[in-house]
Specification:
Layout lengths: L36 H8 L8 H11 L3 H59 L2 H11 L30
Length: 168
């Protein structure tokens, strides 16, 4: 049974394990009169000794904060305030930049759309048969012959310059 007791004097299933039926730890007394337990405790305790002067002085000192500690706390509070203000300013700047970025992206999208429309309009307005007629008839251009065409594949983004064979 002693293995099942809790710290509050109860057994494993919440039952009181005390052997005396009228006593409990809460001070409840059965009957029509209450005992003056507090008075009995005061009479049983020895009187307190007067506190020594040094002990009282140390206790007073512990209750009050020193000037150095107050300055440290004030400095820490100011630093924390400055960090907080800086953080709020950075958040506002980030929000502003995000809005500006969204506006620029929208502007870029509308400019690309306008550019594509203008390009398609120019392409549709060109008559390739008219260009061919002017190039052959008025400017005297001719199609390239078999030996005049050279195919070259570039491995990079560089440009290539062809040097005529007779100008070495």
């Amino acid at each position: 049974m002693s293995q099942n007791r809790n710290q509050n004097g109860r057994g494993a299933y919440g039952q009181r394990t005390s052997t005396s039926p009228g006593r409990s730890r809460s001070g409840y007394v059965y009957g029509n009169t209450a005992r003056k337990m507090e008075l009995q405790r005061q009479l049983q305790q020895p009187p307190r000794k007067p506190v020594q002067h040094e002990v009282r002085k140390n206790r007073e000192k512990a209750r009050h904060m020193s000037m150095g500690y107050v300055l440290f706390l004030a400095t820490a509070l100011i630093v924390a305030g400055l960090i907080l203000v800086n953080y709020v300013q950075l958040q506002a700047e980030l929000t502003n930049m995000t809005k500006t970025n969204a506006a620029k992206a929208s502007e870029l999208s509308s400019l690309r759309l306008a550019n594509d429309e203008a390009y398609n309009r120019v392409l549709s307005s060109i008559d390739l048969e008219e260009v061919k007629r002017i190039a052959i008839g008025e400017l005297g251009m001719v199609y390239a012959q078999e030996g005049q065409i050279y195919n070259y594949t570039s491995e990079g983004n560089d440009y290539m310059r062809k040097v005529p064979q007779g100008s070495n």
